[in-house]
Design a protein that fits this description.
The protein has a 4-stranded antiparallel beta sheet with strand order 1-2-3-4, with no helix packed on it. It is built from 1 helix and 16 strands. By secondary structure, the chain is mostly beta strands.
């Protein structure tokens, strides 16, 4: 059996071309089927998921040239992150949105679905309304846009065919994330998620529960109503009005 000699070792978290170990607490590595080596981590200052990736030469993992690309998992803020890599299949991501309690699984992280460059969105808060301005990428024009105003598992969404849209401020207090997605008028082609805006509402409802209690009739009350109608019909039987 031939002896394997390792000529060079590299500490990925101390590589000057890489992220600093003081900047990222947890670093996940994913070796993709197309021979990309991808780092997944959370930016602590913004709680956003980021990644760096590098094409590698088989059996040669030294002097890697890392580059930033789009967020593969999500552009939104997350509170937990985990990556598991399976041979010939790639990375599977596990994460939880910061303002929600539902865990998400992306399987695989790098799929073959075609998406396009994301638009960017800006916002002006007038105190009673939100004024949005969408900017298209230079290389593509979208047919319409979906703006998502999300707090945890609840969201208010708007579809607009224009690059400007004014909507009322949400009436539930809390922290919101706002982003948009562009749609092409052909098939199911969409963009990646846009940049994410933060919105904090300090006045309004405490939750997304109905604004007023809804009164429901019991079965006994409904039966009594039909009984009264039946009595009335019996009295009217044969009476010409």
């Amino acid at each position: 059996m031939s002896e394997i000699v390792i000529s060079k070792k590299i500490n990925l978290t101390e590589d000057p071309n890489n992220i600093s170990p003081l900047y990222v607490n947890k670093l996940f590595m994913g070796n993709e089927p197309n021979n990309e080596l991808v780092q997944y981590y959370v930016v602590p200052t913004a709680s956003m998921q980021e990644d760096k990736q590098s094409k590698v030469v088989l059996s040669d993992y030294d002097e890697l040239s890392w580059g930033n690309k789009r967020r593969r998992l999500t552009a939104r803020k997350i509170s937990n992150l985990g990556i598991k890599t399976f041979p010939t299949y790639g990375a599977i991501g596990f994460f939880t949105y910061k303002y929600g309690e539902r865990s998400m699984i992306l399987c695989p992280v790098n799929n073959n679905h075609t998406k396009f460059i994301a638009p960017t969105i800006s916002m002006k808060n007038t105190g009673t309304q939100l004024e949005f301005t969408i900017t298209c990428p230079d290389t593509i024009t979208y047919y319409c846009y979906r703006i998502i105003i999300r707090q945890g598992d609840f969201a208010v969404e708007y579809i607009t065919y224009d690059l400007k849209l004014t909507v009322p401020i949400p009436d539930v207090k809390g922290n919101y994330e706002i982003f948009c997605i562009g749609y092409i008028n052909e098939g199911e082609a969409i963009s990646y998620d846009s940049n994410v805006l933060d919105l904090t509402i300090t006045t309004g409802q405490e939750s997304f529960a109905p604004k007023a209690e809804i009164a429901y009739y019991t079965k006994e009350q409904v039966d009594a109503m039909f009984g009264q109608i039946g009595d009335l019909l019996d009295k009217l039987n044969g009476v010409v009005i």
